[in-house]
Amino acid sequence: MNVLVVEDQALVRGAIGSLLGLESGIDVVGLAEHGQAALALIANNPPDIVLTDIEMPEMTGLELAAEIQRHHSQIHVVVMTTFSKSGYIKRALDLGVKAFILKEQPTEYLTSALAAVMQGKRVIEPELALMALDDNDPLSDKERQAIRLAGEGMATKLIAQRLCLSEGTVRNYLSEAIAKLNATNRIDAARIAKQKGWI
Amino acid sequence: MNVLVVEDQALVRGAIGSLLGLESGIDVVGLAEHGQAALALIANNPPDIVLTDIEMPEMTGLELAAEIQRHHSQIHVVVMTTFSKSGYIKRALDLGVKAFILKEQPTEYLTSALAAVMQGKRVIEPELALMALDDNDPLSDKERQAIRLAGEGMATKLIAQRLCLSEGTVRNYLSEAIAKLNATNRIDAARIAKQKGWI
DNA sequence: AAAAAGATCTGACAATTGTCACCTCACATC
DNA sequence: GATGTGAGGTGACAATTGTCAGATCTTTTT
């Protein structure tokens, strides 16, 4: 099967290309450093599978998956990512992505997932699928914005100015968010929300 | 030459192992997922070169480099990282690291750097070396640790317990660090220090 | 040996942050 | 027209955080 590898870090891109090149049954037919480059290669020579990272500049792997779903629906998309954020998983599943690979998983997981995808299967760890289900972001829009700014080190007064709210209201939002996320303070809350992909 | 690869993401670790395995003259004699595991492998079977990522949980690649410099000074250390933070580069050079590889560089850069290191050379991009020059980390060791924990959302009391210091002393350290970094509070200070590679 | 320089600690104080109960106003619904 | 409901606000209070001026007790320097 023909695979196109999309990953922004050249060293990792090359290393994964080399890894897959060793597998019998897999031909690496292209390497792209972001979604735009990948689309150009796909137009010329559509592969069977596009294996793409999610976090990339210019165009993320999920945006690439959306584009492929729209214009090249016969191509299977497999995404890789460092972070098992429930938001990512949910979007990927909605976009018809065939496999969801975490970079913490061993190389054998990747190769066997690619083989399974060629047989028409979907590959996703059950626990990740569950994460997508209970991806219920409890934060309101204002809470989200307040927590994000707080996570960048802004003081309450500045956050209030930025959001055009009173200082007290901002404190209320932050307090709410801290409670909802079971955090101990605003920094902790920001950390938790980031980790879930909510801010 | 015998190379030990240290990288926390299994997929990337395996892929780099596979890449280096293809090179004639390179034997990948071990794969470790963090500094602790690497040290255990080194004790049994010291390689010629340790190729390590910097950003890792438990023990960072730079902490590993320090440990190797102290106890296994004949081993060459090569670090890889996504971020060209001036603090990383400076610390790496101070720790006797032989080559500094960015993950955005192509795979050939890595393989040729490893070959050069075996010939006793040092490999670092001139522009990165320059970054190291104008990097003056003003933080003391204790301040660094305190700020890092604060950046993770820990309250003063917990930080004090972790560092075996009194609460007041921790507040002093944080206050000092905030002043030195021209920050407005502990979160802001942590953000600045992270970006420079000081924590 | 005296002086200087550290690191840690303490206590006091002000500023910021976190929590909570309750207020107001607009706007949709019954 | 009465009633909810939700966004935004206020004020009060406690807890945490930030600042600073010493106090102790090592080390290091002179």
Automatic annotation (TrEMBL), chains A, B:
UniProt cross-references to Gene3D superfamilies, sorted A to Z: 3.40.50.2300, Winged helix-like DNA-binding domain superfamily/Winged helix DNA-binding domain (1.10.10.10)
Record flagged with keyword DNA damage: no
Domain Response regulatory: 2-118
InterPro entries with a match to the protein in the record: CheY-like_superfamily, Sig_transdc_resp-reg_C-effctor, Sig_transdc_resp-reg_receiver, Tscrpt_reg_LuxR_C, WalR-like, WH-like_DNA-bd_sf
Annotated GO MF terms: DNA binding
Superkingdom classification of source: Bacteria
Modified residues (4-aspartylphosphate): D53
One example of a Gene Ontology biological process annotation: regulation of DNA-templated transcription
Record key words, sorted: DNA-binding, Phosphoprotein
Domain HTH luxR-type: 132-197
Protein name, as recorded: Response regulator transcription factor
Phylogenetic placement of the source organism: Bacteria, Pseudomonadati, Pseudomonadota, Gammaproteobacteria, Alteromonadales
